[in-house]
Amino acid sequence: xxxxxxxxxxxxxxxxxxxxxxxxxxxxxxxxxxxxxxxxxxxxxxxxxxxxxxxxxxxxxxxxxxxxxxxxxxxxxxxxxxxxxxxxxxxxxxxxxxxxxxxxxxxxxxxxxxxxxxxxxxxxxxxxxxxxxxxxxxxxxxxxxxxxxxxxxxxxxxxxxxxxxxxxxxxxxxxxxxxxxxxxxxxxxxxxxxxxxxxxxxxxxxxxxxxxxxxxxxxxxxxxxxxxxxxxxxxxxxxxxxxxxxxxxxxxxxxxxxxxxxxxxxxxxxxxxxxxxxxxxxxxxxxxxxxxxxxxxxxxxxxxxxxxxxxxxxxxxxxxxxxxxxxxxxxxxxxxxxxxxxxxxxxxxxxxxxxxxxxxxxxxxxxxxxxxxxxxxxxxxxxxxxxxxxxxxxxxxxxxxxxxxxxxxxxxxxxxxxxxxxxxxxxxxxxxxx
Length: 434
What we know:
Distance between the termini: 24 Å
Number of domains: 2
Region (Disordered): 410-434
Organism: Paractinoplanes aksuensis
Low-confidence stretches: 183-194
Protein name: HEAT repeat domain-containing protein
Number of helices: 25
Radius of gyration: 25 Å
Oligomer: single chain
């Protein structure tokens, strides 16, 4: 099977061969490194991540992938991030990545100190409180302390060690180490003191949407998500009210601001609660309207279908629902592959066959990538094959082929994986020594 899969992919890549072939993105390099870890080749994976950091890239997923390496190799990746200046302004608007790097440092006093000194560096404009970079610096320092405190529960003595590295002006950032400063920590307080929503309180949530204090655009932003959540939690009486008077009221409230979002939220609720036929009927009605593209994320409906097990229980109805979602949504699929993983191999294969219904030049590529990532993580070669056959240009074919290379590596076919990697713009590596 390995040879046939790889040969077929190479033939498709040859079909779209161009001189200026697309190159792999930093995110794709990181996914390739993760596949190498799964194949048992940590040395090659660490090399990939270090090369990315030296080239100037810090993909959002990089710290999490590096955390899967052995401590020694993970800290070599951290050292590359520090040495190449990737833990300061490179993380602008992404302070959470500083926390990810802190998790790589945790457990080593030297690594923790090196990271703290690096994030404490003051870059241009970061010493001027009236500018955004000053806040960004505070956020990244706080993210590091928060992550380190989580890694060292019950070790308050570390606060003194970290404080010694801080200057007086940065001392307030230690407040982010809530896990050590408070005996419970915020997460434990939330766990012990939560206020679960009950059916009796749900009408009040709906009443808020009809508040005179809300401008029309405000409820339109979240009405689909809110209605879906309320419908799933509600009992039979409130669900009937939602489908009748409440829906009519909200459509009128949003008459100039996407009233269709009401039906999208209700469709998601119906699908998830085992009434997929009724949900599909709402979507059919929307697709027959004059404006057949609506500003909602496909994630809501796709996730609802996956949770209901629709791909397995009623494949034909799932095919119709997914086709309607693809044709109606004006936004790409979810960034996370988790919903696509939940669809299962049958659901992913069905979705792959329907990507042509997505908005031309916008969604199909993102939808292909979303399905391909989930297929690569689960060894779903059927879906990867369908996506390759559906490719209409070199960038899309290469994108899917990179995920196929990762899948082959995970399943022990390093020769095939490296052959594909070289053909589609990923740096090949030598297999790990036995």
